[in-house]
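Renewal narrative, Specific Aim 1. Our central claim is that a sequence can be written position by position from structural information alone. The example that follows is taken directly from our test logs and has not been curated for this report. It begins with the structure tokens describing the chain, in the order in which they were read.
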């Protein structure tokens, strides 16, 4: 299930039109951001939350959940779209769904030192099996392999309470923990596919050669550094290398929380095998056993039927 951003249908929005609890999805503009969107099959590489005064986000800058001015987010990003949480056609703030419980959870994490940047979004996508096969896996190894391996080593010995929390994990956690009852009335609904490798992708293929170089060259320089390491010592000659990387990312980023999709993985047929295996898309909440909040990606939030598009901030 896809819900892609249509540039012809964008509506301008201003800060005055936002309400507390609105979700902001953005594209950073770096090559890392582009790779996240490519693997995640979405248009956004970052997610954050509006509290009525400022932006709350989990970011790699200082490894903290932080407060950040909206103007700074809009100024740094390639584009920023706003979404309003809506259940049964009733937006947040109605039917007794006050944003206060969400914001209480959100502010409780501000300043805590276990938020991580976009490199860990790449790791999350690898752990979830979102790579579509050898070419994309080779590209990840060639471009980000050294940094990702070092990042995984840094978090390997952390306790479960300090496990890295990426941007979309933070946002979905704020909604999930806002209601601890069995009802989980603030949970965000997500189209869940038991194994993303099994998806049929109808979107454009990954650019290669001159097209890929031109795409990366057009990205504006932001505060997230580009990857420049030489990963020639890393081998990606066998499918087992991909399997090993997936397991390392799972262990470091999810611990025991990730759903086990191993029985559905089919390296020979790749993402074209989902119909034969009967792995149908279904709607679950971010936080349900099928989709722990640590496994939610920016693309998942983009596809959420709970989040209704409000508008796009002018650059």
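The sequence written for that structure reads:
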């Amino acid at each position: 299930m896809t819900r892609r951003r249509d540039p012809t249908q964008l509506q301008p929005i201003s800060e005055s039109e936002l309400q507390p609890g609105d979700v902001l999805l953005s594209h950073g503009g770096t090559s890392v951001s582009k790779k996240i969107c490519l693997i995640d099959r979405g248009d956004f590489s970052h997610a954050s939350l509006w509290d009525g005064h400022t932006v709350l986000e989990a970011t790699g800058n200082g490894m903290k959940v932080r407060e950040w001015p909206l103007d700074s987010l809009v100024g740094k990003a390639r584009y920023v779209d706003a979404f309003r949480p809506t259940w049964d056609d009733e937006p947040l703030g109605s039917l007794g769904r006050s944003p206060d419980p969400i914001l209480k959870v959100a502010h409780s994490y501000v300043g805590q030192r276990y938020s991580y940047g976009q490199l860990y979004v790449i790791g999350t996508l690898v752990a979830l099996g979102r790579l579509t096969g050898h070419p994309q896996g080779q590209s990840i190894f060639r471009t980000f392999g050294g940094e990702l391996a070092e990042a995984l080593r840094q978090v390997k010995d952390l306790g479960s309470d300090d496990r890295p929390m990426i941007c979309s994990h933070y946002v979905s956690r704020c909604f999930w923990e806002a209601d601890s009852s069995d009802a989980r009335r603030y949970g965000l609904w997500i189209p869940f596919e038991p194994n993303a490798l099994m998806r049929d992708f109808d979107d454009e293929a990954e650019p290669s050669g001159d097209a890929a170089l031109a795409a990366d060259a057009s990205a504006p320089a932001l505060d997230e550094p580009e990857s420049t390491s030489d990963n020639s010592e890393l081998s990606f000659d066998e499918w087992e290398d991909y399997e090993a990387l997936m397991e390392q990312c799972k262990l470091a980023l999810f611990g025991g929380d990730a759903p086990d999709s191993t029985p559905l993985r089919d390296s020979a047929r790749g993402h074209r095998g989902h119909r034969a295996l009967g792995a149908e898309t279904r709607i679950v909440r971010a936080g349900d056993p099928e989709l722990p909040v640590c496994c939610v990606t920016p693309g998942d939030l983009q596809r959420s039927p709970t989040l209704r598009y409000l508008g796009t901030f002018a650059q």
